[in-house]
Specification:
The structure is a single chain. This protein has 10 helices and 4 strands. The chain has 221 residues and is mainly α. The longest helix is centred in the first third of the chain and has 21 residues, at 10-30. The mean pLDDT is 90. The strands form 2 sheets. The chain has a two-stranded antiparallel ribbon with strand order 1-2. A two-stranded parallel ribbon has the order 3-4.
Length: 221
């Protein structure tokens, strides 16, 4: 996918990568007891893998990558929504609602709790260490999501190109400012604003706001 680069200093990029590595490595160690508990809860609650079996996401420069998340839905939820006639009406609502559903029947009992408090995102620290993601950045979109949403909101095409110029983040500006309650056109604009304004101070401000967003569960679906 084409992208429009918004250059920042080499010092910023180096400090951001260092911060990503230090934060993600430290948090993986701190969250290790939680990771074990969540993995056990998922296996007890429903049949299926511990990690979500979802398609690849769009990363920096349009490159696809596998995002690691705890499974919060039934097994094969992504394929079922798109291919099962039983879920055709729900899939239409999903696309119409900027690829978010308020009452998604595919979410498991444990999954509701994980998603509300963003605990399902914890495995993404592995993506950060691999270099696929950053701690702070835009949302990592599905390829078909980007295509369909740009058809619905054609005015967002230039913003999407800017957003794809950097790594997606585990948290970000829109995630701490309303999260899933924000539609695609506003969300992608907020992501573009972050790309243009990004700095170490701005990243730290977003990181400091993230715990409250996780605890409160505001806007989570």
């Amino acid at each position: 996918m084409p992208y429009t680069e918004v250059k920042k200093s080499g010092l910023y990029e180096a400090l951001k990568r260092l911060m990503d590595i230090v934060f993600s490595f430290t948090l993986l160690i701190l969250f290790s007891p939680l990771i074990l508990v969540v993995a056990l809860a998922i296996k007890i609650d429903t049949k299926g893998p511990i990690l979500a079996d979802t398609p690849e996401r769009v990363g920096k420069g349009g490159k696809l990558f596998k995002m690691y998340k705890f499974r919060s839905m039934i097994q094969n939820a992504h394929a079922i929504l798109r291919n099962s006639p039983k879920y055709s009406k729900l899939f239409h609502e999903y696309k119409k609602g900027s690829y978010k559903l308020k009452d998604d029947p595919r979410i498991t009992r444990v999954g509701h709790f994980l998603r509300k408090h963003s605990i399902d995102e914890v495995p993404q620290f592995i993506n950060i260490l691999r270099g696929d993601m950053s701690l702070v950045g835009p949302r990592a979109y599905y390829p078909d999501e980007l295509v369909e949403q740009q058809k619905m909101y054609p005015q967002t095409k230039s913003a999407v190109k800017v957003v794809l110029s950097i790594k997606p983040g585990v948290t970000g500006y829109w995630q701490v400012s309303g999260r899933s309650e924000i539609n695609f056109d506003k969300r992608i604009k907020m992501d573009e604003t972050y790309v243009r304004k990004r700095s170490i101070i701005y990243d730290l401000w977003i990181i400091l706001k993230t715990p409250w967003a996780m605890i409160s569960g505001k806007g989570a679906l």
